[in-house]
Amino acid sequence: MKQKLKMDSKQKIKVSIVRCSSYDKASVAKAIKQSLENIGFETKKYKNKKVLIKPNILGSYHPSKAITTHPEIVFSVAKIFKEADAEVDVGESFNPFGIKLSDSFKKTGIQSAAEKAGAKVVHFLSNDAKEWHNEKNEVLKKVRLPKQLNDYDLIVNLPKMKTHSLVRYTGAVKNTFGFVPGGQKPTYHVVGKNEQKFSKMILDIYQTIPNMNLNIIDGIIGLEGEGPGTAGRPKKSNLIICSENALAADIVAAEIMCFKDDEVLTNKFGKERNLVGEIETVGEKIKDVKINFKKANSSIGGIIPIIAPFFFKIVAKRPFIHQEKCKRCQACVKICPPKAMSFDKNKKKVCINKKECIMCYCCSEICPYDAITLEQSKLAKTLIKIKNRIMGE
Question: Mind listing the pLDDT tens digit for each residue in 302-316?
């Protein structure tokens, strides 16, 4: 298996922060070229080599929703590598949400962007997957991923800058979950049944991906609140964040979004695994571009160390269906990993079995009508107030 970029332990990891106020083609191209220059990344090294661009395609959403990587980012990055005479693919694994991947590529504008840049669109299907072994992993020693990944000399990761209902923040490291074949995603959600375990599992997937040595976070317009899907709201942040190290990019992005130190567990656990070293920011200073993102309220965060872990299901937020918004499309029923959601034909409504719910929030994430929100019990609210008083927050 090919490995990620090896860096000198004494060498600082560069993370570029560049302002970009719109998705205007010229503005995006200029910002991305500046970002690559800031970290000393040379595209000419990939002449006649295979490059894969991995955007965030959560579903069939218009770019204005700020849920998926904006097509202008994809176009600009693909064009830069095509100009360096690289063979460029734009790829994603199919999802299990009842939405054709081809429809998602088209609706997001990414299909058109890739083709205009001269890149090839690639769909990674379930029968293309194989088991990748990594003994350094903690939760998944074997990860099902597309077998074609080892064919690429470089994987360019293009995540969206968003908050997340389960793991608080989703960026470069979390975007690698998109490589998991759709039918396997629900299974992995069951394996990573809480924030801690899911975060460790995401890191397992990340450190199994070969040659992912360039990460460009689309933060021109991010997503805040109950992301990463339709329950979130667009947030203009006017930034592009770039690094050869995904974890370093995420650490900088999280700080810009005003997350507290180690509040994002993928960042915390990634540091503990020594997947990132000392970081040097280039371009804008973090303090000059900080913007307070409204966080997802589903995570109970600091309560976990205070109360016993078995109280998690009592205090965590649960999905709540707003029947007046629900269109009975049953996308949530199809995606639910533990099959806790069902459609009652007699009552003609979607129902949730609370005992079976593992609070992975896939239903809220995928609902195209914003009909599923996350509601917290009175007990949970009380515990949070007590924790805040204890911590002086």
Answer: 333 333 344 445 556
